[in-house]
Amino acid sequence: RAIQTAQEISLQMDEQTYGEHAAGLFTMWSYANVEANQVADAQRTFQQALERWQQLNNRVRVVEAQAGLAWVALAQGKTEEALCRIEPILEYLGNHELHAAIEPYRIYWAVYQILLAHGDPRAQPLLQRAYTHLKNQASLVPAGETRQAFLENMPAHRRIYRRAIECLIDPLPV
Predict the structure, then answer these.
(1) Per-10-residue mean pLDDT, the chain, length 174
(2) pLDDT of residue 174
(3) Rounded distance, CA 101 to CA 106, Å?
(4) How far apart are CA 81 and CA 97, in angstroms?
(5) How many angstroms separate the CA atoms of 70 and 79, rounded?
(6) What gap in Å lies between CA 147 and CA 127, rounded to an integer?
(7) What's the rounded Cα separation, in Å, for the pair 150 and 166?
(8) What pTM, to 2 d.p., does this model score?
(9) Alpha-carbon distance values, 6 to 3, 10, 20, 22 (Å)
(10) Could you tell me which residues come within 8 angstroms of residue 102 by beta carbon, excluding any fewer than 6 positions away?
């Protein structure tokens, strides 16, 4: 209920003044819906986030919302739609990084899962790229419990980290 109330408030926000904040809130609510496995709600909020980021001409955040909608399609069993939705993301990743995304590793994970579901050979190199970025970021965190928390407490970090290790990609010492 709290998510729905906050969404209603953000819909009333003045786009000129609060555009990025409202779009960011929709993105975060979308992720909360994903974690709660509320697929229909995630689809609705990712679509709202997409529309707002498009209006703001923020390309990396558009990509983030597109990845969310691709995940929704995969969760609904629409694997072909999911694959079609990630092609522009893969094109974007060919020339850009995801530093300005709210949760870049969720983008990588969604795209990886879709490629994997299709047996697409681009899945492994994408996982390697995501893991390399995650490893580089984690190396800036002090070793020990703090680094382990960084790798394990964020769902997308944990999924990429564990999958990379399962695939025998060079693990980062923690």
Answers:
(1) 56 58 86 88 93 94 96 95 97 95 95 97 96 94 92 94 85 61
(2) 58
(3) 10
(4) 24
(5) 9
(6) 20
(7) 19
(8) 0.86
(9) 5, 6, 15, 10
(10) 24, 27, 28, 31, 61, 64
